[in-house]
Amino acid sequence: MKTVLVTGALGQIGSELVAKLRSLYGDNHIVGTDIRSDADSPVVCGGPFEILDVTDGERFLEIGKKYHVDAVVHLAAVLSATGEAKPQFAWHLNMTGLVNGLETARQLQCQLFTPSSIAAFGPSTPKDSTPQDTIQRPNTIYGVTKVSGELLCDYYHQRFGVDTRGVRFPGLISYVTPPGGGTTDYAVEIYYHAVKEKKYTSYIAAGTKMDMMYMPDALEAIVQLMEADPARLIHRNAFNITAMSFAPEDVAAAIQARIPEFLLTYDVDPVRQRIAESWPNSIDARCAVDEWGFQPRYDLESMTKDMLEKLVSRGR
Questions:
Q1: pLDDT tens for residues 165-209?
Q2: What residue ranges do the domains of the chain occupy?
Q3: Is 160 helix (H, G, I), strand (E, B) or coil?
Q4: How many CB atoms lie within 10 A of CB 269?
Q5: CATH class label, 171-211+243-281+298-313
Q6: What gap in Å lies between CA 292 and CA 20, rounded to an integer?
Q7: 168: which of 56, 217, 242, 289 is 20 to 30 A away, CA to CA?
Q8: CATH superfamily of 4-170+213-240
Q9: pTM
Q10: Residues with Cβ < 8 Å from 243, sequence gap 6 or more?
Q11: Residue 134: is it exposed, middle or buried by C-beta count within 10 angstroms (0-12/13-18/19+)?
């Protein structure tokens, strides 16, 4: 039975991924870690949990050895909007944390999964059906760390034989955990506000399309790629994946089909708008489909239906 160490386990992806992995591999085989603890979180009380600052390489390796881990899922990171406010901190956390994860994987001879992002692209990247292999010149520190991380994972695979794997996530939408400082967070917030207040003010301008994915599809993609036959993997560390591409008014229309009184207005944040405009409108995920069978289940309509039902049932 595989034992997996997950960093950033109390974050947006981690809090749901830990639950999914424990359901697959057993509670005692999934070690959640984060820089903080939360006694009420199932991540903390539902199985092994350790405090970990991922910039502490000795502690990272110590925990890996303690639990004899077979895989590291490294999620701890500063996201795009937060990174622009604290670029030096973003570089330190994102890059030092990844190096320590890779060193732990190298020394323990285990697998490492870490996500990249559509933020790895930039203004000079083709905007529509963005290819798997293309120009990557991001203009955010978050994007710079993601391009650097892709290259670093490639290096550790080629130089040391570490089984590194990763995807370029689009914006992720979840009813479980609130957003954590990303440019695409509006696409999560809009559903919460629709249920609570029947209105939302978007900081992203009308007509600004970005790729998105519902969290259940994102979690399934992680598991699929981790379990994929390595002989089929050509790109390995930075697969384009996506499920849908939409602008704020498209989400509003999907919500209004179920909450007719919902009102969308705009108050554009120039920083996040600039970031959004530097990213693709839509990306080409054919390599993920061909190399490990990626296939999302949710589109905008089915995601909106499920999101609203779940938020209402949870009293959000």
A1: 999 999 999 998 777 778 889 999 999 999 999 999 999 999 999
A2: 4-170+213-240, 171-211+243-281+298-313
A3: helix
A4: 16
A5: alpha beta
A6: 19
A7: 56
A8: NAD(P)-binding Rossmann-like Domain (3.40.50.720)
A9: 0.94
A10: 170, 211, 212, 213, 214, 217, 296, 298, 299, 303
A11: middle
